[in-house]
Amino acid sequence: PNPSILILPGDGIGPEVMAEVRKIIAWFGDKRGLRFDVSEDLVGGAAYDKHRLPLADETMAKAQEVDAVLLGAVGGPAYDGLDFSVKPERGLLRLRKEMDLYSNLRPAQCFDALADFSSLKKDIVAGLDIMIVRELTSGVYFGEPRGIIEEGNERVGINTQRYTESEIERAARSAFELAMRRGKKVCSMEKANVMESGILWREVVTRVGKDYPEVGLSHMYADNGAMQLVRAPKQFDVILTDNLFGDILSDCAAMLTGSLGMLPSASLGAPMENGRPKALYEPVHGSAPDIAGQGKANPIACILSFAMALRYSFDQGAEADRLEAAVEKVLADGVRTADLLASEGVEPVSTSQMGDAVIT
Ligand code: NAI
Ligand code: MG
């Protein structure tokens, strides 16, 4: 049987950018003999409109069965007033939680043609290709106790940074596995100088690293890591970090490379029976209500998310390279959606023209 993909376009520009991914999937079937069983369903506001839920149980069950889920984006002003329990983002949170997607992969890659777009000097980012692995299901965003309590005559806000050895170990393993397919370097970031969880983090990562003798492991305090990311980002290959630091460091790394419309991501969980990891691929951007329905959205973030699926779910590294090279070529040829226009006098292409340009 062909590998299976569940497409959840979602809201706003989600369906627009996903239409371009569908073209690309069709292209791989026709031209490369690489076929997938593709099904499609609702998530977010679109699911709420039909089911009064941001993710129906049947959709959740399908997501658990397929080899990979591709998601567009969720949310929009029409749903801002909804009760928290049925907000569009809850659909996404449910997917991440029930699929137990503990390893969030955020590449920061600089396409030469867009190097001028970076907030940094061109020579600092040209050729940049790093990957941040963020632990996604534990840490201070989930740790107990939490809450706002009365203490004496004032209130105290409490969150708890908490990591078990096995949570650290599985995130670390995914970073080392990735490094084996890339530049064979892992830099682990925590605050072992001031945090107990950081001490344990460093110890467990060091232990897991012994299973990967080919991978060079280094450790860095996360605050220094933030500084190094903007000072000399090319020193890194894979950066491994926890949920909180990863949230911040990955947004920081994102801005090294320019537009939100270019950034893909993957969230991976434990291997399934067929050996493939549970996996959800999605662009970093949201539903962009300000440009939705106008054919202006840049589909590249979503297209590159599919390239990550080819690489990490379907073991098609060479085909992923092919797709990434096609994106690089289109950019080098000067094809630009509106978000990538730095100067006057260049006509932007539409979402669908960008998708067409990538496959031709
Ligand atoms: P956003 O990422 O949707 O948009 C931020 C800005 O970037 C906007 O000006 C938008 O036009 C632009 N932009 C984003 N993606 C683009 C693309 N592919 N091509 C061209 N321009 C692009 O973030 P915002 O405005 O904070 O949130 C809008 C909605 O999306 C909210 O309802 C929010 O909750 C939701 N959201 C959903 C996410 C998800 O589904 N994972 C992530 C972030 C926000
Ligand atoms: Mg963030």
Automatic annotation (TrEMBL):
Homodimer. It comes from the Bacteria. NAD(+) binds at residues 76-89, 286-298. The keyword Mitochondrion does not apply. Residues 4-358 form the Isopropylmalate dehydrogenase-like domain. It is an enzyme of class 1 (oxidoreductase). This is 3-isopropylmalate dehydrogenase. Keywords: Amino-acid biosynthesis, Branched-chain amino acid biosynthesis, Cytoplasm, Leucine biosynthesis, Magnesium, Manganese, Metal-binding, NAD, Oxidoreductase. Mg(2+) binds at D223, D247, D251. It comes from Leisingera daeponensis. Catalyzes the oxidation of 3-carboxy-2-hydroxy-4-methylpentanoate (3-isopropylmalate) to 3-carboxy-4-methyl-2-oxopentanoate. The product decarboxylates to 4-methyl-2 oxopentanoate.
